Request: fold
Amino acid sequence: MAEATGQHLYVMQNEFGLIKIGRSVDVERRRLTLQSTERCRIQTVEIYTGCGDMEEDIHLDMDDHRLAGEWFDGSDEARAALCELISCDDPPIRWPYAYDPSGASAWLDHINVVRHAAAIRRELYRQITILRDGHEPSWVYDSGVFYAKWRAATGRPPGLDTVKIDGQTATHWFDLDSDAEGIVPAFTASVENALLAWPDDLRPATWIGTPIACCIAALAAIRDRLPRVERRPTPDHAG
Reply:
C-alpha cells in the first residue's frame, strides 16, 4: 500500500447520495473498482492532490455521520460538516446525486448481507486451507473447525477460550447471546469425533479416511450448502 502522503484525498458520491471519503494514487481506477464491487453508480466529487494523509482525521471528525466503512450519510448536515472540515464553501461542492434515504438504506442492507455471506465463505475456506496442511490432531484445528461451523450456522462468532482437562489443552466455547457453553470436540483426534463436524442432516454414516480429511469434507459441505446471495446488477460506468 502506498504511503498516505503520496496519495490523493477524494470525495465520491453514489447514486443514492451517500458520500465516500478515501484516498488513492489513482482516483479514477479506484472509482471504477468501487462501482463494480459496490454495485452502484459512483461519481468523483472532488480530488485533493497529495492530501491522502488527511483521510484518517476527516474520518474521525465525520464519525457521527458514518454508515459503513468509508461510506457516510448524504444528508445536508453531513455535507455541511464535510465542507467545514475541508473548507470547500468557495467554490461550493457540486453534488452529482440527490440524497435518497430509502434507496441508500436498501443498498446498505443488501451490501451488508453480501459482505457477511462472503466473510463466512472466506472463513470456511481459510479453515479448509489450514487443515490441508495438518498432519496431527490439534486443539487448534479443532477450534478452527468449531468456529467456522458455528459461524456458518448462526451468522455470528462463538466465544472461545482455552482450558486444561486432565492435563490436555482443549477449547471451551460459549454463546455470546445465551448461557449455552461446552467443550469443543476433539474433531481431529478420531473419525468418530470428526463426523461431529458435519451438520446432522449431511453427516455420512461412516468415513473411510483420516479425521482431518473428514473435517475438511465437513467444512466443504457446509460451504457448498450456504445460500447464494444475488448481487445487484453492475451498473454502466458513470462518467
About this structure: The CA atoms of residues 78 and 130 lie 44 Å apart. The longest strand covers residues 8-14. The beta strands are 8-14, 19-24, 42-48, 66-68, 71-72, 159-165, 168-174, 181-183. The chain has two domains: 8-99, 115-225.
